[in-house]
Amino acid sequence: MPTIKDIATMTGFSVTTVSRALNDYNDVNAQTKKKIEDAAEKIGYVPNILAQNLVMKKSKTIGILVNELKRESSKDGLMLEMLCGVSDVLADSDYEFVLLSTSTAKQKNKTFKQLCEERQLAGLIIQGLKNDDPYLEEIVDSNVPCVLIDILITNETTKYVTSNQIESIKDAIKYLHRLGHCAIAYMNGSDGAHVSTIRKQGYLEALKEIGLPAHENYIMNGQFDEDIAKKVAMPFLLNHPEVTAVFCASDVMAIGVLSAAKDLSIKVPEKLSVIGFDNIVLSRYSTPPLTTISQSPYNMAAAGTELLTAMIEKKQEKTPFKILNSELIIRESTTFQGSV
Amino acid sequence: MPTIKDIATMTGFSVTTVSRALNDYNDVNAQTKKKIEDAAEKIGYVPNILAQNLVMKKSKTIGILVNELKRESSKDGLMLEMLCGVSDVLADSDYEFVLLSTSTAKQKNKTFKQLCEERQLAGLIIQGLKNDDPYLEEIVDSNVPCVLIDILITNETTKYVTSNQIESIKDAIKYLHRLGHCAIAYMNGSDGAHVSTIRKQGYLEALKEIGLPAHENYIMNGQFDEDIAKKVAMPFLLNHPEVTAVFCASDVMAIGVLSAAKDLSIKVPEKLSVIGFDNIVLSRYSTPPLTTISQSPYNMAAAGTELLTAMIEKKQEKTPFKILNSELIIRESTTFQGSV
DNA sequence: ATTTTAACCCGAAACGTTTCGGATGTCAAT
DNA sequence: ATTGACATCCGAAACGTTTCGGGTTAAAAT
C-alpha cells in the first residue's frame, strides 16, 4: 500500500531521489539515503514489482514450462525435485518463478512468444517437451533466454543441461553383459520424447560395443507408464524365454516389468534381471529394490537455473550447456545370468 | 511487443475504444469491434498483464504458500498432487499461480502483507503451516482472501478445506480393535503441525469410544520422518512387546516402522499390524503394502481453489469451508491379532 | 423546430515505478 | 572574478493498461 510517493512526502525529497536512494545510486547524500531508508522501513514499504517490471520492460520472473502437469507425474518425484532445485537456487536472489503447464490445447491459443510477453518473463526452464512440440521451434527462434532440460540444442539464447545418460546406459548394459546376460531387451518410453531417442541410442551403442546383435523385436515401448509397460512385457516375456535381462528407460516402467514377471512367476533377479532409470523414490522400495541409473533432477534443475540467470544477466558463461553425472546404482533386481 | 496503441493507430480508433472493444464493453459498434479484434489477432496482440494489474490494482495471480519446499517432500507426492489440483482447476480460467515457499529466515525479511502486496496477489492457498507460525495471525487479520489446508480457521476472508480425518482415524482404530488388537500405539508427527493435533485427537477419541485406556507412553513422535520414526520405533517395540498394532500419522513414518519391525524380525502383519496415513504412492508398493487412510490432496487443493476463486470474485458461497471424505484403505499390513 | 434518447466514440488521468537530462549550490583552481 | 568540477537533487516522461466523464451524431419524440 505505501508507495515511493509516500516516502517522498514524508521525507520532503522528490520521488526521483527516493527511488535513487532505494536503488543504491551513488548520487544521493549518505544522510539523505539514511532518512529515506528509515522512512521506508517505518511504513513498511515494499516496491510494487508490477510497476517496476512495467517500466523496466522486463521482470525477474522465470517460468518453468512443463509439457503437462499431470497427476501421474507424482509417482516419480521428478517434477517436484526439479521445482526444489529451482527454488533453492533462486531462494536468496530476487528472482521468482511461475509454473507454466502447457498442453496442445493451450498452445493453440497462445504462442510461445505470447506466453513470454504477457508476463515479461526473464527466462524459462523447459522440461519434458516432445520432439515434435510446436513450441520447440519458437523457443530456439525467440530471443528469450531458455534452458532446455535433456534437449540438446544451443544458440545465442538457448542452452541446455543434461546428464551423460548414454555413458551410464552403456555402463548398465555392459554390467549386465559381465553378469553373463546376452539377450537383453529394452523397454523404451514414448517415441516423441527426446530422452527416448537418446536412451535407445545408448542401448544400441552398448550392444554394438560389446558385439551383441541388436534385435529390433527386443525393443518394447511402454510409454513411460507402469501399466502399459506391464501389458507389453507380459506377452514379450512369454514369447522370449531366452531373454534374461531387460533394461527400462524409466523406473516406473521397470516396476511394470517387475509386476509382469511376478504374475508370470518369473523370479527377479534369479530368472530375470531388470534395470530401471531415474532412481525414483519407489525404486528403493520395490521388491526387489531396483538396480537403476540415477540422474538427479534436483541438480539438473539447479544447474539449469544457474545457467539461466547467468544468461539473463549477460554474464557470459564459458559453456552453452552443462552435463551432469548420472550413475548406475546397483541394487537387488540384477544378478548373474543363470544364478539359480 | 504489440500494444493496444498499435491497434489504435492501425484501425484509426482511440486507445480507449480499442480497450473497450477488447474487453467486451457494449458501447462499441459491432463492426468496430470486429475490426479491432481482427487487427489484434493479426499482429498477435496479448495484453500486458503487468500493466493491467498495475492499473486495476489487483492481479489474477494466486499464490500457493508452502511452509518449506524441501526435497524430502518428493517422497510423498502430496505437494505435487496439490499443485496439479490447483493447476487443473485454474487451467481454463485466466488465473495463474505462483509457488511461494517461506522459511523462518524469509519471514524475518517480509511480512505476509508485504508478500501479498508486492505481487498484488488475488488470494492464497496455504498449506503446511505450523501452529505457531507467525504468518498465521497475519493471515487471519489480513483482508486478502486465503484458503487454509487442514487448519480450521474462518472469517470474512479466510476459509479452509480439510477432510474428515478424525472419523477415518476412528474407523482405523476401531478396525484394529475388531481384529482383536487391544494395545495400539500411535506414532505422531511433529508437534507444531496442526494435523498432528487433529490426528492425535482422533486416536484418543477412538480409544475412549471403544473403552481402551490411553497410555501416554504409547504415543511416539516421528516428526513425519521415516528415519526418525524408525529410530523411535525400535526401542519402543522392544520395550513394549504387548503392543500388537501401531497407527501412524503418515505413511512415511509407517514405512519407518515397517523397517524397524523388519530389523527386529517382527513379522508384519502377523506379529504387528501397521496403519499409515496419506495413501502415498509408496504405500502401495511397500512390503507389505500398507493399510492406510486416503485423503486426496488433489481434491483438497482443487476444492480449495474453487473456494478461493469464489471468494475473490465475491460470489458468496454458502459455507466458509469444505470437508472432503477420507477413507480407510485396507491392504496387507494389518490382520487379526494373534493370527499366526 | 426543438428536445430527448441512444449509440458510439474519445481525451486525459491514473496506477507505481525508473531514468534522462538537466538544475542548483559549493568549493577549489585559475 | 571567472571557470570547472563535483555532489546532490529534481521535473517530467515513459511503460501499457483501464476508466471516468464527457462529446458528437443521428434518429425518435415532442
Describe it for me?
Two copies of one chain form a homodimer. The first copy, chain A, has 340 residues and is of the alpha/beta class. Chain A has three domains: 4-47, Orthogonal Bundle (434 Repressor (Amino-terminal Domain)); 61-163 and 297-323, Rossmann fold; 165-295, Rossmann fold (3-Layer(aba) Sandwich), CATH 3.40.50. Chain A has helices spanning 4-11, 15-22, 30-42, 49-56, 78-90, 104-109, 112-119, 134-141, 165-178, 194-210, 226-239, 251-263, 281-285, 297-312; strands at 61-66, 96-101, 123-127, 146-149, 158-163, 184-188, 219-221, 245-248, 273-275, 292-294, 321-324, 327-329. Chain A has a six-stranded parallel beta sheet, with helices on one face. In chain A, strands 7-6-8-9 form a four-stranded parallel beta sheet, sandwiched between helices. In chain A, α5 (78-90) links the parallel β1 and β2. The first copy, chain A, is elongated, with a radius of gyration of 26 Å. The A-B interface holds A 1, 44, 46-51, 53-54, 59, 69-71, 73-75, 77, 79-81, 83-84, 87, 96-99, 101, 106, 110-111, 113-114, 117-120, 255, 281-282, 285-287, 298 and B 1, 44, 46-51, 53-54, 59, 69-71, 73-75, 77, 79-81, 83-84, 87, 91, 96-99, 101, 110-111, 113-114, 117-120, 255, 281-282, 285-287, 298. Chain A binds a DNA duplex (30 and 30 nucleotides) through α2 and α4.
What key attributes describe this structure?
homodimer; 340 residues; alpha/beta; 434 Repressor (Amino-terminal Domain); Rossmann fold; 6-stranded parallel β-sheet; 15% strand; DNA-binding
